[in-house]
Write a structure and sequence with these properties.
Helices cover 38% and strands 13% of the residues. It is of the alpha/beta class and 509 residues long. It starts with 33 loop residues before the first helix and ends with a strand.
C-alpha cells in the first residue's frame, strides 16, 4: 500500500458480434491528490514574533515561509488534513538554476525549517543555483503539532544496575506509550516515515518541481532512502550524511553503536587529560575514564543533587552519551565541564550546573521538550515493530552490560515501542540502487561507519565520502572539512558523482 492510485489499465472494448470493434480510448486515472499537488502556496514572513530567533535568522537570509496542506491519512485524501511548514531561500542565479533542494536534519522529530541559512552558506557559490527548502516534518515544530505530554524530552535512558532499575524503566516506557494513546491516539497511526515521504512528494508538486534534490542528515538519510524508493524518478541530486543502514533501522537502532561510542569516549578522555589544568579530571586518559566510572557508581548508590535536579543512574550515562556526537573543542569542553559538575555532586559538593549540562538535564528530566520525544518515538514505533516481552530486553541488557557497562545497557534498554500498537504498514524495502553521494565519519557514534558501507554496497552507483579520524555525527557544513565540503559542493554543482570514493582526513584538535 502506497496511498496513491496506480495508473489504471487501459480498458479494451469487446468486439461486437457482427460489427467492427470501436476504437479504444485511454483515460488517465484521476489523481486522488490533485488538490494537494496543485495547491497555491502563500509565502509570508518567517518571523513569528520578537522572540523568534529562528524566524529572525530566516528573515536575515531572505527566506520566506509557507504552509503546505497534506492529508493526515493518504488512504483517505478527502478526509482530515494537516499542515507541513516549509521555508525557502530562492535561487539568485536563475540562469543556472538547478531546482529545489529539500533538507532534513534528522531526529526523527528534528526541526529543519531553520536550516536553509547555514546550509546555503555551506554550499558557497553553488547555493545561488538552488531554492534551499527547510521542512518541519508532519507534527514537528511549526507544522501541525503533536505532544504526548511526557515528563521528559527523551524516552531513551539507562535501565540502572539491577532488575529493580530495569523494572522502573519498563514502567516508565509503558506510561509513555499510554500517554501517547491518551493524548494523540487519533494521529499516532499516521506518524511514520512513509507518510513523511508522501508529504515530501506533495511539497515537490506544490513547488512546481518535476524532481527534487535532497540533503539529509542522520535519520534524514533513512527518510531520503524511503522517498527515493517510494517515488522513483523524482530525485535529482541526493546527499546522505551520517548514513543510516535500513537493514538495522528499527526502534532499537542504537544497538551495535557501543564500540563507536566507547571509541569516542576514549578520544574525549584523552582530550580532557591534555587539559587537566582547565578541567581537573586527571592527567591521563585512564584517570579521566575512572572519573566517569566513579560518577556512575555514585549515582547507582543514590541520586546526585545537581542544581534543582536529582540525577540517578539512568540519567548519568545519557549525559555522557549526549556529549559524544560532535568532535570539536566546544562539544568536548561542554562534556568535560558536565563530568566535572557530576563528579563534584558525587563528592557531596553543591553544584550549579553549567549551561550545557543544565540544558541536557532539562531535556531529560522535564517535559519542556516533550513534543520532540513524542514525535521521535511515534515515528520509530510506527515504522517498525519492536519486541513486546520485557524479558527480551532484560537479557539483552545483561549481555551488553558485560561488554560495555556504561553504554550497553542504554542502547539495549526497553522503550515505549514495546507497548505500542503494531505499525499500519510494512517497513519499506529500500530500492536496489541510487546514484547518491554518501558521507560518513569513521568514528560516528550515532550512525556508525559500517552502516554507510552497507548502504554503499547495496547501491553500486553511489559514492562514499569518508572522513577518517573523526568521532563526528554529520559532516557537510558542520565539521569544517574543506575536503568533504568541496566534494559535496562539486556534486551539487555538476550533478556528477566523483569517479571513485573519496577519503578525507580529519583535522587535529
Amino acid at each position: 500500500m502506497t496511498g496513491f492510485t496506480a495508473p489504471a489499465a487501459l480498458a479494451l472494448a469487446g468486439a461486437l458480434a457482427f460489427g467492427a470493434a470501436p476504437a479504444a480510448t485511454a483515460h488517465p486515472a484521476p489523481d486522488p491528490l490533485a488538490r494537494y499537488h496543485h495547491q497555491h502556496l502563500v509565502w509570508e514572513s518567517c518571523l513569528l514574533g520578537p522572540d523568534d530567533d529562528t524566524g529572525r535568522e530566516l528573515e536575515k537570509a531572505g527566506a520566506r515561509c509557507a504552509d503546505v496542506t497534506v492529508p493526515l491519512d493518504y488512504d483517505d485524501p478527502g478526509g482530515r488534513t494537516i499542515t507541513v511548514a516549509i521555508s525557502r531561500i530562492e535561487a539568485t542565479d536563475t540562469a543556472h538554476r538547478v531546482g529545489s533542494l529539500l533538507l532534513n536534519s534528522g531526529g526523527p522529530g528534528g526541526q529543519t525549517i531553520g536550516d536553509p541559512p547555514w546550509v546555503r552558506a555551506a554550499m558557497k557559490d553553488v547555493g545561488r543555483r538552488y531554492d534551499v527548502v527547510g521542512v518541519d516534518p508532519r507534527f514537528v515544530g511549526r507544522s501541525t503539532p503533536m505532544d504526548c505530554h511526557w515528563p521528559t524530552g527523551s524516552a531513551i535512558r539507562g535501565p540502572g544496575h539491577d532488575r529493580a532499575g530495569f523494572d522502573r524503566s519498563t514502567a516508565l516506557a509503558a506510561r509513555l506509550a499510554d500517554d501517547c494513546r491518551k493524548f494523540e491516539g487519533d494521529v499516532l497511526p499516521y506518524v511514520t516515515t512513509r507518510n513523511t515521504a508522501r508529504d515530501m512528494d506533495v511539497i515537490r508538486a506544490a513547488l512546481g518541481e518535476r524532481r527534487i534534490s535532497y540533503l539529509g542528515y542522520s535519520y534524514g538519510t533513512y527518510l531520503g532512502q524511503v522517498y527515493a524508493t517510494m517515488f522513483p524518478g523524482r530525485t535529482d541530486r541526493v546527499v546522505l550524511d551520517g548514513v543510516a543502514d535500513p537493514g538495522r533501522y528499527s526502534p532499537r537502532l542504537l544497538r551495535g553503536s557501543e564500540p563507536a561510542n566507547r571509541h569516542a569516549l576514549r578520544d574525549w578522555a584523552a582530550w580532557a587529560a591534555a587539559r587537566d589544568t582547565t578541567y581537573g579530571l586527571g592527567g591521563s586518559r585512564q584517570a579521566v575514564l575512572a572519573v566517569v566510572d566513579r560518577v556512575q557508581a555514585a549515582a547507582e548508590r543514590a541520586p546526585l543533587r545537581v542544581g534543582d535536579y536529582q540525577v540517578d543512574e539512568s540519567i548519568t550515562p545519557m549525559v555522557v552519551f549526549s556529549g559524544l556526537s560532535q568532535d570539536d573543542d566546544t562539544a568536548y569542553g561542554a562534556l568535560a565541564s558536565a563530568v566535572r559538575d557530576l563528579r563534584d555532586a558525587a563528592d557531596g559538593r553543591s553544584v550549579d550546573p553549567g549551561p550545557w549540562l543544565a540544558d541536557t538535564l532539562r531535556f531529560q528530566l522535564t517535559g519542556s521538550e516533550s513534543a520532540y520525544g513524542s514525535v521521535q518515538m511515534a515515528v520509530l514505533c510506527g515504522d517498525v515493530a519492536a519486541p513486546r516481552l520485557p524479558d527480551t530486553y532484560w537479557h539483552d541488557v545483561q549481555r551488553a552490560r558485560a561488554k560495555d557497562p556504561l553504554f550497553g545497557p542504554v542502547t539495549n534498554n526497553i522503550g515505549p515501542c514495546a507497548f505500542w500498537e503494531p505499525p499500519r504498514e510494512r517497513p519499506t524495502r529500500i530500492r536496489d540502487d541510487l546514484p547518491a553521494l554518501l558521507v560518513n565519519a569513521t568514528g560516528d557514534p550515532r550512525t556508525v561507519y559500517e552502516g554507510a558501507q552497507a548502504v554503499h554496497r547495496g547501491w553500486p552507483g553511489s559514492r562514499l565520502v569518508t572522513l577518517r579520524g573523526a568521532d563526528q555525527h554529520a559532516v557537510f557544513g558542520v565539521y569544517g572539512s574543506a575536503c568533504v565540503d568541496a566534494t559535496v559542493n562539486a556534486y551539487l554543482s555538476s550533478g556528477r558523482l566523483p569517479a571513485t570514493d573519496v577519503t578525507c582526513t580529519a583535522t587535529a584538535h
